[in-house]
Every structure is written in structure tokens, then in C-alpha cells.
Amino acid sequence: MFFYLSQFLSFLAMPLTIISLLWLFGLLYIRKKWGKRCLWIGLILLWFFSNQFIANQAMLAWEPEFKGFNEVKNHEIGIVLTGVTNLSKTAYDRTFFNKGADRITHALQLYRERKIKKILITGGQGLNPVNPQSEAELLERFLLMTGVPAEDIMIEDKSKNTAQNAAFTKEFLDAKGIDTNQEFLLITSAFHMYRAKGCFDKAGLKTQTFPTDYYSHDTKYDLPAFLYPNPSSIENWHKLSKEWIGILVYKLVGYI
Fold this sequence. Notes:
Shape: elongated
Number of helices: 10
Structural class: alpha/beta
Radius of gyration: 20 Å
Low-confidence stretches: none
Helix content: 40-55%
Mean pLDDT: 92
Number of strands: 5
């Protein structure tokens, strides 16, 4: 129930939801002064959230700096959070990735460079799955295809959110008799790292972070960045608003 509630609250906080509601009320009450104001506020917010420079600066301020591979200490296990595959597209001979594929490809690079000896993938099917396979299974298939031995891959495929990623990973490690007092390498998207780290700390797992999947880019001072609206900028604000709501709710219920 909590999973569906958090998703609904995140939807309400998204920029396009707010703008759409402002325009809806503005059109319904256009003859009133506050109705016209709703339309203007919605238009101003649309410009603000679609502005490339503003959105990128917000994401730059939120995302932690990336780490060079040579900066990472050697770990026995790297923990990869899912949320990177297209579960709405069912196939059994390949894995369809969304933008966050960095999570698993960088984990693979860490493995090849012997920064981690094993890869633990945590993540189930998420909300309203149409694919009978879990994300962990899909990513395991990808790693096997790249030549990673099966004995170096572990999967936890029941969790549906970040809090469960941490709690179920702890249970999985305990059940396997793996020392949970060691430090693990936590691999997830940069925008999501604060919440993920908090959940794993709460679960009693010590982690070093390795952020991936960056939505920000180096600052550009040019005309398109300042003036041209861009739908990807709205997507960045959606990511941020969903994450901030998630952090707030997780703190309220004691997940972090």
C-alpha cells in the first residue's frame, strides 16, 4: 500500500501535474481574476521547468560528483540497484535498457577492473508489471551474456522500492552466510544516491557510494541553453521532484 501511495504523491508533485492543474482551474474559472492568474502562473512555470540552463544547474547541485575508477577501493561485493530496464517490453533473448543502463555497465567495468569480485543485483518487478521477469533476472542475463561467471552474480528479485532493496539485500546476505559487517560498493544513479545510501545505512549495511547515470552535464553558456525550451529539462525536474518527495516520505516513515 505504501508503494502505491508514494507513487501517487510523487505524481501530484510533478511539474507537469502542477501546470496542468493550474491551467485546468484557470480555464474553468477564466472569467474570474484568480482564474486568469492561474493561467499566467502555469505559463511562467512551464517556461521555468523547460529552461535547459535552470534545470541543469538544479541537477548539478543535487547530483554528487562522479568518482574515478582508480579512486574506488577494492570490495568483495558491488550492490546494483535496478530501475534501468524496459519491463513493459517482454523478450527472452535480450535485455531492453532505459537511460539508467550505466548502473549495470559501470558495475561490469568495476568487475573487469577487479574493483569488485561479485555483483549483487537487487530489484523485482515494480509497479503493475506486464513482464513476468524481474529486473534482477534481466540484468543477470545481460551479465552472463558478457561473460561474467554465474557464480559471481547474485540476485535479490523481490524488492519493489529502495527501502526494500536495502532490507531484502540484508536478509539475502544473512541467509547466504555472507559477512554483513564488511563494506559494500553501492551502485545506483547519482540523483538517487542520497536516498539509497540512507536506506542501506538504516538496514545496517556499510557502503561506499559509486554514483552513475548522470542527468546533468557541464554548464553551457549559450543562447539555446538560456532561451530554448527542452522537454528533457522537464524530465529532469520530474526526476528531482519525485526523488525529493521520496526522501521526505522515507524520513517520515523511518526508512532513512
